[in-house]
Structure formats: structure tokens, C-alpha cells
Amino acid sequence: MTTNMAASCSLVCCKEEREGDKAVMVRFSNGSVRNADKLDFSMYKSVDENNPRKRSRRILVAESERLSYVGNNFGTGSLKCNNLCKYYVGVLNKQTMQMEVHNAQLFNMQPVIPGETDTAKSQDTTLTYREKVESLISTFGTNKQKRALSSRRLNQVGSDTLHQAVAKAASNVIDQKGLEALQQEVAETESQGDLALHLPPCDANADKPEDVYLLDDLLTPVEFETLEMAGSKLAELSPEELQKMTDDGGSLCVAKHLENMPTADEARDKVARGAFYLSMLLKLARQKNITRKFGQEEGCPRIIQNKLLKTFTVETFNNGRVLNIVSTSMRAKIAAYSLALLLHMGHMTADLTLLHRDLGITEARMIEVAKSMGLTLVRPARGKTDKAGLQGEHKQATLLLPLIKYEQFTERRKRKKMH
Prior knowledge:
Elements (H helix, E strand, L loop, with lengths): L1 E3 L5 E4 L9 E6 L11 E6 L12 E6 L4 E5 L8 H4 L2 E7 L4 E15 L3 H11 L2 H12 L2 H13 L3 H19 L1 H18 L18 H4 L2 H6 L1 H8 L3 H9 L4 H8 L5 H21 L3 E2 L11 H11 L1 E5 L2 E5 L2 H18 L3 E3 H8 L3 H10 L3 E3 L7 H7 L3 E3 L21
Parallel strand pairs: 2-8, 3-8
Antiparallel strand pairs: 1-2, 4-5, 5-6, 6-8, 7-8, 9-11, 10-11, 12-14, 13-14
Helix pairs in contact: 9-12, 10-11, 11-12, 12-14, 14-15, 14-16, 15-16
């Protein structure tokens, strides 16, 4: 494409350029350079070509007899304008009077004084921020600031005395409880903390059971509205289609709720939408690598697909590609959110046996999740019929107020004595 200009000059757009073909424009932070021809420029690029976030990183170095300058397109010293807009530079050929237009990127060149960088790094590693401030006050502070600093130092407890006091207190606690008991408490606290990070938001002081784990925290009103069409399709499934879905390895929890749909329109619509979202959670838990096409076959709305990828997967790099995977911790998070959703769908009662089978986790892990949520574990009494007998083998969880706080117990194997 050629554009004629007034001074008998034409612009020529170049062909598609690669990342390394961009022209370089520099700006010196300490002013203009008088003898730019005497500068020796060198460009360095990242060797990690497989990482999409690092392969475009560049470092530009300009060296002269008196001073060196360094600029980069990443990190704190880079210019944010490179990400907000595009730069172009024109090169005029005076013989043909054609100007070629090239992509360009801007570098902010900062002077580097030999010896200062190493000193600053050593200071950063040895001095804290507070120590640096105190050093500045001691050297350049006013008399009032120096008096305050001196008073604060006099009031501080010596580090040696503090360490001795802590060591003595720790020794007394160990003597009273025993080292093995303390290690057991630490392990239990850490296990509770790790699992608590993946639980849905909880209001333990709520007046009603349905307000402990709010439905709006599991599905926002906007997300709930987008599930209208997908939920209505599930509600229209015939008993034969539900049986076929179960025989083909479908979700047992979803099939159970679809078989026992409420008759009221509002309650029926709520269960249908919840069943579809639950089916997406259970499908996500059974997969390892998740693609952007997840849920398209089932008609999953885009907003729900983005929510699942953002909330229940972690990003990783493989062969230069960004992948979404379901880790072990994310599978525990899916179990907790699925259990909370089942409570709303089943009048604050959920079948743990069906859920752990659908999730592909052990029953012990499922019970651990239910206990961490403060639920009451129930094993229904066996009935006379076969169906009731099978139902009696299922463990269920019920949300009752106040929530139960379980004591952690880990079974330790006894060592066999040698005779």
C-alpha cells in the first residue's frame, strides 16, 4: 500500500515483522546525548524461548568512554507505554524518496555508575527498611528526629536477651507437653489451615442454616441467570434418558436430584440450574488438563466457563504453552463447593457417598472436607426393603446450627517390639 505525500514522498508499509525485527528508539533519562555516534549499542534477549512471558524480554546497553547506559522492556524500570500503544518509525530513502514504516519499541536508558549497583545490592540484603531509615536520620535528621531515635533504641529489648527469653519459654512448654505432642498439634493445625483455604465463605454466626454458606457466594445472581437455558434442558430429560446418563458413567448426584425434582416452578428451576453447575464441577474434577473448549458440548455459558477456569484450576507452562490443570488442592476445593451446593439443593442434607464417587476421591477425604465445614455426619437407619438397605449404607452430611468443631485425630501406627 503506497500513500503519496505533498513533497513527492511516499510511505511504504513493510511486510509482517517478527518480534526481533522491531526498530529501537531510545530515551536517555539524564538528558540528551551530544555525541550519539560514539555510543556502542548492544542488544540482549532472553534465552527462555519456551516461556511466552519471557521470550520477548530485551536488554539494551549503550557504552561510551565515560559512562554506560542500560534499558529494558520489562521490570520496574521499563516504560509502561510499550504495553499501552504501538510505536512506528519511518526510514526515508532519499534516492527513491520512499519512507519505510517499521514497528518500534521505546527504551528508557538510565546511567550505570560502576560500583554503585553492587554496593546497593549488598545493602539491600544486609539492612532492613527500618534500619536504612534510622541510618538516614542519624546522618541527616533534625535534632528532634535524632532524640526520638535515641529514645526508641533505649526502649528496645536487646536481641540477645529476647532470644534467651524465647528459648527459655519454648523449653518450658516442651517440658510440660512433650515434643511429640507439640509436633502433632502443629501437623493438625497445618492440615486444617491448608484445607480451610479452599472452603467457600462461611458465616458461622448465621441465624439460619441456608445463610451459613450463601448460594450467592457459590453462584452470583448474574451467573445464576445465565444457567436458565442449560438448566431447563436438564429438567426436561425423561426417566429413560436419566437412566442412560447413569449407565454411561454420568454424575450420580445430578441424576438423583433430577429424578426427584420439586413440583413448584421456582424450586424446580433452582434445582435444575444447580444440577447443571454441579455437573460441570464434577466433570472438571475428573480431568487433569483443561482446555478453553471445556463445557462447550454441554452448552455451558461463557461466564460459567471462565469462573470454573479462574476459581478451580491453576496455570502451568508446558512446551511454551499456558495450561490449566486441576491440582490435588483444587480437587479438594471443588469437593467443598460441590458439597455446599448440594446442601442448598437437598434441604441442607447431602449424600457424601455419591459425591465422593462422582469426584473420584476417597471417602475419608470426603468426610474430612465435611468435618472442616462443620457439618453433622449421619448414617441413616437401614430399612426393610432392598432400596432402603442400600440407602442405609450411604453416609450423609447435614448442616445444623451451631456448627460442629471436630477435634483432629490422626492414627499412628505402633512399632512392633523386637524380642
